[in-house]
Specification:
- It is built from 14 helices and twelve strands.
- By secondary structure, it is of the alpha+beta class.
- The protein has three domains: 184 residues, BirA Bifunctional Protein, domain 2 (2-Layer Sandwich), CATH 3.30.930.10; 100 residues, no CATH class; 75 residues, no CATH class.
- Helix 11 packs antiparallel against helix 12.
- The longest helix is centred in the first third of the chain and has 17 residues.
- The model has no long low-confidence stretch (mean pLDDT 87).
- Pfam families: tRNA-synt_His.
Length: 362
Amino acid sequence: MPNRSQIQARAAMMRVRFEAAGAQVVDPPLLQPAEILLDLYGEDIRARAYVTSDALRGEQMLRPDFTLPVVQMHMSEGAEPARYTYSGEVFRRQEHDPDRANEYIQVGYEVFDREDPAGADAEVFSLFALQLRGLRLRAATGDIGILTAAVQGLRTTERRKAALMRHLWRPRRFRVLLDRFSGRKPEPEVRAELLDDTDPMGFDVPMIGKRRASEIEARIEALREDRATPPISDNELTGLEALLTVRETMPFALEQLRDVAVDLPQITPALDRLEARIAALQARGVDVERLDFEAAYGRTSMEYYDGFVFGFYAEGRPDLPPIATGGRYDALTRQLGNGVEIPAVGGVLRPDLMLEIEEVAS
């Protein structure tokens, strides 16, 4: 196994390469305000982060990643366009797998540039591919923006679309909602009985919990309205199901998705962006004819990405986490910029895993 000095030396070498590509070195603090992270990711992040409390600063977390503090820094004081690189420790709690590291070094590269998003996507991916050259890795790509466009363009209520968007990152729950909204599965029996009651608040029972009667009545009325909503059409449902199964090399994936767009025309602008990205990758020497594209890629582990996503994985080592991951996170800049936003894309690499793969290969 590589030692800490070897990992730090590799990280420094990689950072120098990113500097040569025009990146400015940044070094965000180890302790990050917990409130902002909780607002973005919800309470789930507590299971993955080390939380501490300070009498003056409140709850803080040991840095779970670099992207958030880099975005905060850029949105408050950065010039445009901008490129940043960094290396340092991140911390992740490991309650289920004692073999996975709870502290490791990341090296990253982030681009904030509104002039040519497709070119920036290709720039980040190609620079990562160069850093990883010589390793036996499989590259996977996807585009969260295609799926979000498909959901947001469905001919159904805003409430239903919001529910699907909220569970986009939880495939099983997303599937359950889709089956219910399309009429394939009936609503739960207990709920049906409740909604059929003419006056569900007419029972003489004590109020338990923090919700007021008016809130319960409003929720019941919303459920009744949802039950009266027509199901998602068979054409749209078929289109969504076809979209989620697309897994091909980039050019063939685009061709299949153009066919899907017959039933889901709302994804056409996202497909145009994919086509521009393919051209930009080719211009940088990436062999797109052999580059995998999965329409559902990134749905379980890349919650703040909203466009292009990618990852590099060690062939023959399914026990290892991704060697590198990244993607586009335009919406995150809007959330942290008080209404101001800028297209942004970046990613991180694991020098420790790179060295481990090299040791095994030698």
